[in-house]
Amino acid sequence: MGRLQTYAELLLKWQRRINLVGSSTLPDLWRRHMLDSAQLFPLLPPGPLLDIGSGAGFPGLVLAILRAGAGQPGRIHLIEADSRKSAFLREAARVTEAPVDIHNQRIEAVAPFAAAVVTARAVAPLGQLLDLAEPFLGAASQCLFLKGRTGEDELTQAAKDWKMTAERIPSLTDPSGFIIHLREVHRGRDA
After folding, report:
1. Is 2-187 a domain of CATH 2.40.50.140?
2. Is the peptide bond between 59 and the residue preceding it cis, with omega within 30 degrees of 0?
3. 56-79 burial string, b = 16+ CB within 10 Å, else e?
4. E-state strands within the chain
5. What is the mean pLDDT of the chain?
6. Segment holding 59, helix H or strand E
């Protein structure tokens, strides 16, 4: 809890200089961002985690802090193209002692590796997320994507090009949102 509190304080300090999260969400930071990210923790398999479009560190940095606190194995890779947000992530990782690798580049430029799980929050529609995640997906890889009202439509659209086992888990923080938990993800047509 102390590491998460330190992270929250740093975020509020940096928010005055760069836009890390929507200003209207700051009064509800713990529910809208921290808990929203933390709800993925019980679903994480062991092994490397890839967080696409980490931004202010949601959900990847929160999950790294929780994993470290629980002594769970698995490196966490935060992908963020924006240099200012990457600088924030580096400082937040330093002060919270979160074991992360920060990649200040677009995901297309990151050398592929086998991720046990791929996460993303507020980055892109599901079909685009799967296109971005594909080089990092192995047969046993899972995806955990936080989605809002459009999630069901995104799942329907993505199913036109992708085969997957999908589980919809109700969000703890948004009554209209859910977690899309994907397994056995592969292209459903010849690419």
Report:
1. no
2. yes
3. bbbbbbbbbbbbbbeeeebbbbbb
4. 49-52, 76-79, 100-103, 115-121, 137-147, 162-170, 178-187
5. 93
6. none
